[in-house]
Every structure is written in C-alpha cells, then in structure tokens.
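Journal club prep, notes for RB
We'll compare a predicted complex against what the paper describes. Inputs for the flavin-adenine dinucleotide case:
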Amino acid sequence: MRPISYARATEVVDAIATVLADPESAYLAGGTTEIDLLRLDVVRPTALVDINDLPLDQIQELADGGLRIGALARMSDVAEDPAVALRFPMIAQALLLGASPQLRHMASMGGNLLQRVRCSYFRDGVSPCNKRSPGTGCSALQGINRGHAILGTSEHCIATHPSDVAVALVALDASVHIEGPSGARAIPISDFFLLPGETPHLEHPLEHGDLIVGIEVPSSTVARTSLYLKVRDRESYEFALASAAVALRVEGGVIADVRLALGGIATRPWRAHRAEQLLMGARAEQAAFASAARAELADAIPRGMNAFKVELAQRTIVRALETAADMRGAT
Ligand SMILES: Cc1cc2nc3c(=O)[nH]c(=O)nc-3n(C[C@H](O)[C@H](O)[C@H](O)COP(=O)(O)OP(=O)(O)OC[C@H]3O[C@@H](n4cnc5c(N)ncnc54)[C@H](O)[C@@H]3O)c2cc1C
Ligand code: SF4
C-alpha cells in the first residue's frame, strides 16, 4: 500500500482547498466506508482530509417545519432527535434499522449518501467490475447476484444502492447542499444518485473537491404518518433485500396524499412514481396497494439468483402501505 498523507481541516474553505490541491485526495468523515475500502485496496487516495472538526453537525428545525441536517451529524444523533422522530419518522426508522449502534455513532449523514456499493465483486478489488475499473465488465451479471438490483440496472452494472436513509430522503424530496470549486449549490436528491447506464463509475454529480455541507428536508404534513419497512436476511447489522419508505394520508377511506420510495432492489434509491400515481385517489385497501406494487415492478429485470425480489418487493410495498393505513385507522 502506498503512503497516504493526512490533514485535519477546521474551516470548510480550507478543507475544500486542501482536497482541490491533490486530484487523488479524499474527504474523511466517520471512515466507516472509506477506511474499509482503503484496507481492501479498492480506493487508493494519496491524501485524506479529515473533516470531523468542521462545524457541520447540527440538526435544525426550520421555521416552516422543514429540517436542515448537517453533513457531519451522526446517524445516531439524527435518529434520536425529537423533531426528526416526530415530524419525519421514516428518517429516524431508516437510520435505526441501518448498520449497528457502534457504526451509527461513527457514520455521518454526508458519508451515508456517498457510501459505495456492497457488491462483492466491486469490493474484492480483483474481479472484472465496471464500477471499480471501467471497461472490464460486470462479474455480477452471470455471478452471485442474489443481493443485486432488479430496477434501474444496465448491462454494465446491477449493483444495489445500499443506503437506507437515502430512500426516506428521496421519498421526502430532500436536497443535498454542496460547497466546492463551483461555489455553493443545492441538488434535488432525485438528481443526486445517477443510474449506472454505460458509466457505472459515475455515481453522483459531484466534482472533485465538492463537499456536502448539509441535507434539507422540506416541510411535509404527510411525513408525520410515515414509516420505513426493511426486509433483510437477519434482524440487525444487515442491508435490505427490499425496503419501503411510505407516507400516507387517507380521507374518507381514499388516499389523499402518498409518498413511496424503495430500497434494496434498485441501483439508486427508487422513487415509486408509477405506484404513487395509481394510489392517489384510490381506496386505501389491499387490492389498490397490490395493483400499484405490481405496476411499479412491471419493468423489473431479474437475473438468476435475485428473481425472488420481484415478489418480495411487491409484498414489502403492500405491507408498508397497509401498516401506514392502519396508523391512520383508515381501513
Ligand atoms: C458493517 C456495515 C454495515 C452497514 N450497514 C448499513 C445499513 O444497513 N444501512 C445503511 O444505510 N448503511 C449501512 N452501512 C454504511 C454506513 O452507513 C456508511 O459506511 C456510513 O454512513 C458512511 O459515513 P462515514 O461518515 O463513515 O463516511 P466515510 O467513510 O468517512 O466517507 C464515505 C465517502 O464519502 C466521502 N465523504 C464523506 N463525507 C463527505 C462530505 N461531507 N462531503 C463529500 N464527501 C464526503 C468520503 O470521501 C468517502 O468517499 C454499513 C456499513 C458497515 C461497515
Ligand atoms: S454489479 Fe456493478 S459493482 Fe458489481 S461487478 Fe457489476 S459493475 Fe461491478
């Protein structure tokens, strides 16, 4: 392993300038992704710029009912924040169902959005993998692909996006706030995670030096009655096989507002627009939930070992919607 230089920044501008000075450098937050991949020789930065002293760990309620989460707020602090638990339960639940308590204390919200895929071919550092080494091929297409994606895939990559909280943030139309060489800007989260297409090595629209400074979640009444359902092989310390972030408002037995996003089955946190359109105005009952779930999965492309996810995802959607409807006492 080649030597890596280390610097600790206390000002945002200094952190950005230090990373910009070296095209091979990277930011270091909790290190729960970066250090793992460094040890596996999957990433090879020449310099790490530690950003943990930057003043970016606040969780603020906005006057209009929205939320501003600093990029360095830890997953555990966000999950336990009373405003998050009350106004955006799907965010708190998605965080608490991720990783382990120790990891959640270390892991930052900005780092969570930028965590890398769990595909074993990507992480072994040697197998053909278009994401790690563009143009080498995708070992998962014909390989062990039980955990891989069935939506948003391409012939070049089928890796599942691993984040739980990103699924809730996509359902809630959050935005990611950036500072960097092009100044300050906000990117709607719907544009933040790129589909693999022919360029699976490009995962987001950030330039080298761009620093995530925060995440903003707009005010949402429907978010108060929301939940995150995660289905996985074991009850803790495991990534999703399928998950659903759901917020539902029912009036007179009819769906008046709905947000639905899916995890564990797609190459990016998946907003279920098609299902949402079918659900709006429908009766809040099992038949409508099942029909919306079927429509959302209609374009799924299963590959060998992950074919079970087509049915599992539909069942996850239906169960999440039924639970959300029960919370309202609607059915
Ligand atoms: C065993 C294990 C189980 C896990 N289970 C789950 C799970 O069930 N659900 C889930 O959602 N996640 C899970 N994770 C992933 C975990 O949530 C992420 O590793 C973590 O959130 C990353 O945050 P970090 O602060 O440690 O980031 P780091 O490792 O420090 O950084 C990750 C990447 O983001 C970059 N970066 C970090 N912060 C910024 C910033 N502010 N601006 C720009 N770039 C930045 C770094 O350069 C690096 O490329 C698991 C991880 C492990 C190791
Ligand atoms: S699925 Fe993506 S990450 Fe996994 S081997 Fe194929 S190209 Fe690499």
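Talking point for the session: The mean pLDDT is 96.
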